[in-house]
Amino acid sequence: MSAYCSAGGAEIQGPTESTPPELSSQVLESELDLDSPEGESQKVGIAPIPIIFYTPETSLAIGGGIVFTFRDPQRPNDKRPDNLQLIAAYTLKNQIFLSLVPEIYFNEKKGKLRIQNNYSNWPTSFFGIGNDADVDIDEIDDLEEVYTNESFTIQPWVTHKAVSHLSLGITLDVKHADISDTEADGIIEQGQLTGADGGTRAGMGPVLEWDTRDAIFYPTQGNWHQLWSWHYRDMLGSDFTYDVYAIDLRTYLSLADDHILAFHALGVTTDGEVPFDELPSPDIRGLYDGLFVDRHMVTLEAEYRFPIHERWSGVVFSAMGDVFHDSDELKVQNIKYAAGGGLRFAINKEERINLRFDIGVSPYGIFPYVLFQESF
Q1: 20 to 30 A from 302, CA-CA: which of 33, 168, 254, 339?
Q2: What does the pLDDT read at residue 52?
């Protein structure tokens, strides 16, 4: 499950790769021969997916899903088949997540249409807005306001290769949120925040992508850079008028066989009447998501990946980042930092699709993570 579910901060995520059919086939995959509307035969793969993961924001989560893959019989080893994903997950914090994601390639794989349809009923936490680096661990519980964010999202991404490794496209983001179960006399309950009563957010914008990775799920060299924006306007049906701009830069360097240095930079800037639950938060292992939120965010990560034995490998990582309301608030003394390490177990050794176990440490706590696929 590649979706990242926010716990107070916005989900700022570009056009991610689908849950790979190779991962699913480790469990069970059956195929059917069907005729397409054009009369051409198709191989239809059907694969169930067991889901289990753990993050500080969700606690233990369990669920399942199914992936349908559609391959041309003349290309049985196609690594990027058309596919349809159905996923459901439930966490011990009574959070529910449902997802329906079709992904269709066209024009000889040069173009891609991916539509994320998500429903979530998400009890979560709000800690206020700002980047107060002096907040103490003991104060965090006092700052916390628990509320429930129930939302439905439709998010299409259409991209097409322009030249070389460059793809261009357009994206639409439509989300309706209902805010409930707020704390009496809390900031949200008092209606002091934009979006405290929920509402609809509808925006669209351009996408630019540069991809030279040697593999999708576990790259050892190359770059994957994305730039996109959403512009929310009432003409699209949005209750709020604001803009989101994001840049996501990833670089992978091969030092030796299976020894890799990976770097990730993510920047998000917003403008206008941004709903409080859409404000960005640093995506750093070792920092509770949503503890710090504000109008702008930047994070930097570095990770060293190395082999251990057969299907086992390890990582060590460090990260820093912060949120800020204005540029003069981005100061060295305010920057949040974390470090840690983890283990990987290759569920699919050929494609290097891993189950990862990480421990992130920061001045704000020690947090474990158990998830599929790499963090970036």
Answers
A1: 168
A2: 87
Phi, psi of 21 (to 5 degrees): -65, -25
Q: Which residue has the tokens 């960005």?
A: 280
Answer yes or no: is 174 within a domain. Answer: yes
Residue 10 clears pLDDT 70, i.e. is over it: no
Q: Could you give the CA distance from residue 353 to residue 224 in angstroms, rounded to a whole number? A: 18
Give the torsion sign (CA, 44, 47, 48, 54): negative
**CA-to-CA separations, 271 to 132, 211, 245, 264, in angstroms, rounded:** 21, 28, 9, 24
**104-138: per-residue pLDDT in tens?**
999 988 999 999 999 999 999 999 998 886 677 77
Tell me the C-alpha distance between 162 and 318, whole Å: 35
Give the predicted TM-score (pTM) of the model: 0.85
Determine, yes or no, domain membership for 221: yes
Q: Which of 97, 140, 110, 74 is nearest to 363 (CA)?
A: 140
In angstroms, rounded to a whole number, what is the distance separating the alpha carbons of residues 69 and 291? 39
Task: Judge contact between 195 and 182, C-beta under 8 A.
Answer: no
Structural domains counted in the chain: 1
Q: Which two tokens stand for residue 362?
A: 């920061």
Is 183 part of a structural domain of the chain? yes
